Protein 1
Amino acid sequence: MDLIGFRPVLVGAALFLAGCTFADDSLFPTLTGGDPSGGVRAPAGDPGAPPALNSTNFQAPGVTEGRDTGTFVGQKATELRNELRRLQADVSKNNTDLQTVRAKTVTDSQRYHGTVGGINSRLQVGTTPGNPILVDSFNQALSQLDQIGDDITRMNVLTTQVTADSTMANFLAENTRATLRLSGAVDEDHRQLAILQDETDRTVVLIDRLLKELTDDIQRQTTYVSTERANLNTMSAAIKSGEMFGSDLTYRALTAATVGMGPMASPSPQASLGDGRRPLVVIRFDRPDVQYEQALYNAVSRTLERRPSAIFEVVAVAPASGGAGRVALATNQARRNAEAVRGSLQRMGLPQSRVTMTSRTSDQAQSNEVHLFLN
């Protein structure tokens, strides 16, 4: 089964456990079995809900009519105005196509999610090995996932069209500014060109936003399809055995992924902090607003599946270089980061009694870090 589209760059935490999903959930399941939303919790093994798509409806700002002044500059303004109308017509068509493919993706994802949920529910209570009913349902789920892959292909085609519109919009914006600098214009020419420039700039912004949302949708859907294809492999083995085989999380080993701007990397010597232990998670606070909670949840939930009574240690790590004053400031900041991580664990449902916190400095650390260990 080939993935369709392209893979986004993973920005996560350094995980040394298998099983990591990347659904865009706004609420974490608790780690102790309760549902933080207060609702009915999905059965174990039920895959995460499909990622939410963006919902902006992109409406072109329109083009103001102008009159022919009889000058060369006026003629250029008329040509640019007509080009902008054609561009905005393309934007409207692409917006219609985007809303259509979004609606289809939602429908296809819901259909797939319902089919897989039914299979998992049957597996949970046990069934005969190779149950033909479940085999048929599995093939149906596979076909439905392929339909989501086709939706991603349509989004990629649309991305090419929107990218061409973006190039054209920037070309028109530059030409409009150049026309304003031409000699031989009357005041009315410059008035019309000023209006045209404003409408062109707004169109540029609109197309850029459309392209960004479309790219985000493709990245989320591609990751979702990738994860679900791996989940179906696990489900296939479960159907053959007639009972639930592991969890719905993909059994993938992530050697190490650095939170922040760095690439995925293998465990490094400083990861052990010199005591021989390997952390479950390394979060490097080397930029503002580090998004670590989903990766943190994945690591802890997988650990609790293996060791339900596990106790965790959150270690604040500060660089040991730069003089006493700088080290003191870094240590205080590292402790605040560690407090934030511990707070995240508590919001996920992990009791405070099962999380300890310590701090230390490291000659190997280049930025403030938080390491999570299994005690």
Protein 2
Amino acid sequence: MELPVALSGARASTLMWTAEHDVEPAALQQLRNIAALEYVHGVRVMPDVHLGKGATVGSVIAMESAISPSAVGVDIGCGVSAVRTSLTAADLPEDLRPLRLAVEAAIPVGFRGHEEWLDLRPFDLTKGLDVFWSRFKDLHPGVQKLEQRAHSQLGSLGGGNHFLEVTLDAEDRVWLALHSGSRNIGKELAERHISIAKKLPQNRDLPDPDLAVFLKGSPEMAAYRRDLEWAQEFALRSREIMMELFKDAVRAAVPGADVGFDSAISCHHNYVAEEEIDGRAMLVTRKGAIRAGSGDLGLLPGSMGTGSYIVRGLGNPASFRSASHGAGRRMSRNRARATYSVEDLIEQTRGVESRKDAGIVDEIPGAYKDLDAVIAAQSDLVSVVQHLRTILCVKG
């Protein structure tokens, strides 16, 4: 089948880099609901598409004069980073468990944060930090009591599908990769603004209340974009901090080695950007999608057992210069827990140093789509630079 295909029954132009029969019906209806909004210029659907809250994961939405906060989602600024090291597989210790435990000790996972504020001076990550935190007082009044928690969670992983990984490329070069977002503060901000949007007059009689929008020029839009931009910066700074902590743990695991690190590849996949689409200025939301402009480098993760791909964007205007953010789930977390056991997890992550317990069964590789098939479906959107196979994975 030649891709992309037009989504049947969609009002606005909606192109899909997957077949309709490969997408759950609820997600297809969700896409049609989005395309029915009068403010939507067009929707682009990535091959890792699946049902999301409010807006579909794996969707790119261009609006000329509006933003739907659900089209960004509650994990504002969620994204990935990858760094190639000077190490090869032969430089690593045979037993990777001590390294995994060291990473888990250095970088809080799950609901945890750092017990003490980090000294970021050794990492050269203090530029603009005081100004960044001074803007907290301007955020939504409902989050003001959360500033200390936000401080503690800056540079922490979180849970769900977020990860820290040691991977190997085709030449056995060691790469470090991570996936994280804006933690609790991003969620709190998003939920408050979604609630505000639902009460606005223009959002009456929507097919889905979660698709409520803010209109350009309104005070509600201005407040949302202020908080959105702060949360996106939080997420980016958090990934930079974690990567430095990750590097330190790797250095300690190979004593005596002079370890070098390349510049990071980093990209958001839940965010808003002002871009030109079809010759017009648009507000573009990507929820579970990355920008794939010509030459843009990105990391597309699979699952704990399948590794990731480093890709280079081809700048295809048909996709609004976008690509998938990874493999994407093929089953919900509840279904995964009902379908798979810890024994299944152990088997599917054989060869990967990771937790092997009931707490992460919902992250089992079998719960995700086939990453190779997702990559193949978007050959006109990105070119493959490297395939990275996972040898160590930290989950929240």
Protein 3
Amino acid sequence: MTEQITMEERKGRILVVDDVAKNIQILGNILRKEGYQIAYATNGVDAISMLLQTKFDLILLDIMMPELDGYETCKKIKDMPESKEIPIIFLTARTDTESIVKGFEIGGEDYITKPFNAQELLARVKTHVELRQKKEFLYSINDILKSKVQNKTKELNEANDRLSILEKAKGDFLKLISHEMRTPLNGMVLLTEQLEKTLTSQTQKENIQYLQTSIQKLLKFSSIALLITTLKAESYQLDFKTLPIEGVVKKVIKNILPNYQFKNISVEYDVSKDSVYVVKTDSHLLEECFGIVIDNAYRFTPSYSKILVSIFESDPYIVVKISDSGPGFGEKYLKTLFEYFSTDNIEHHTEGLGLGLSASKLIIDSLGGLINVGNKTDESGAFVTIHLKKI
């Protein structure tokens, strides 16, 4: 149910300050007939005392008074927190510009000349009282909204604290799972390597090799999952260094090549011989990203085909484009390729590429770059472009 805030309809409360009783009587009669509540003071000191005790919507203030004149009284009223927002209309027999300007300068909102014209008086009073009441109404709305915002902010902060606790618990859990997976898997790697040396049957060797491949996939999955968890928890400490981008790519390819040597895939480079492309980035994360992308390119490129690595400038980035000769991405799946654990994009891959590309995007986002994927238009295959900021 929507809360409605309505403005109270009431006539204003007016304080008349004048040392002449006849003037107070005339003003009182005019204003009371219109339903206004009237209080009066015959000097500035009494007016200030009344303002400390009673709330008024308007002050009608005579200028020519003994002891404390209207100007001095106005200054003191405007200096008081309780009354500084109350509009003041000066009552004056003076019509010279200097006196009128002085009244505005010290905080008066309006003036009425003596002798009073009843219609003019009521029109000016009505305008200022309504403005005062509307202003108070807006203040009350603002206070209510401020309170609501504070309450909502408190609720959001509490919810955020709970979410942070849950995120930390989830991160710690995934780290534990990853560690618990890697420990027995590493032991299985050593055991299968020793077992392979004792086997003589070709079938048994093939089975062991299949088991080793499966173990490596699990280790890779565990490593990527741990990396994603660390980056999303923002607990990874970035270590930026100046690196030659081509050297990083070649290092990664050198490490991956033994796994795919049987496919006889060639790697070609399209890099300007006259340029040295250097970036400032985290070498470990960048190698992880290139490792994921290049491993996928090897995996889905047919035997005796090629992978093309292009490196070029596109301000304000250095761009690395890795193109394979595989089947490409299904068009309707291109939008979901960076989603974690996506199974929609299986036309191009069948073994966890979605997680790998998600990790790649998370890495590049952490490094302040961009990553895009697409299909080649002139031939079969897909490409991944990685944009890293120039130095």
Protein 4
Amino acid sequence: MAKKAKNSLHWSLKESTRRVIESLAPAIQITVGALLAYSLAHYGLNHETPLLAITVCITSLGFSRDARPKRILQTAIGMVVGVAISDLALSVLGSGVWQLGLVLIVVLLAARFISGSSAFALTAGIQAMLVQLLPVPAGGVFIRTSDGLIGGLLAILVTALIPRDPRGLARTDANKLFDFFIESLNSLRLALRDVNMDVADDALRKVRKSQPLIDNWRMSLDSAVAISRISPFLNKYRDELKGQVRLMRGMDLATRNLRVIVRRVDFLLKDGTPRPYLADLCDQLHSAVSLMREGLNDSEALDNAEQELLEIIRQLDPKRFGIADQIREASVLLLLRPLVVDLLCASGMSEDDARAELPEV
């Protein structure tokens, strides 16, 4: 029991450290943005306590994996709208309990109209309530709306000028997916060679939980592409990011096919018969996908992976292995065909050209 608790503590410490390291760049970006927003409002415009300039900037940037300028702008606009509604209500209706309730419900509904995020609606509502409850600053109620605008503008500015290394995050997410994919192919190889049901069952459990790996890569890559359009420091990487988008889309489809193949293999092995030829194909795929992973940083590796995949795809004919009349066995081989097509598309080949390489069955 003590050993189990120690392992649990070690895992928690490792995950916490990882989160701190991954959050370092966003934390610096948020801090710089908040300080700039405060300085502009306080020293530039003589606003005594520009609370909303800071809070709008911090909330708009956030620690979300989705760092797209569109998402940041949407958050900032929603919060400023909430502050403006609250300021307007104060100037027209005054303050009181019923005014508080009216402003809150209007802001919550307006936020839901702007964004589908429930957390965003609550954040906008909190900002509006701060306006209602805090003393009116010198200069009038709409000073706080201008502070909110400053916070939103600074959030967009630091996104462009102090990007939080979205390329690095996208590459990290890509490596996590490739780690999973390569590990799954290795598990399939062992299971098919040794009829190891424990390995097959474990691979099946893991493959069912693989979708977040794709979702994270897609989100971080979308953010990197979007930021590269407005950031002078990342604009030069746009072609590289477009290539990674193609790679991600192909790996997305290949991962979906991999799930089906793992389920089929898990069922097939119940007869206790080893399939060394399928194990060999998985070994070849393992080598090709490992090269594709290197292709994140080296385009030549993708070319080499494409050549290996072409050698694999030309083998995917049930007649080659004498199983054309064995439906259960041939089904696994046939399922490998769309997976290899997807991998070829990820490596840079067009779908039509990849399908043209398939042997007739």
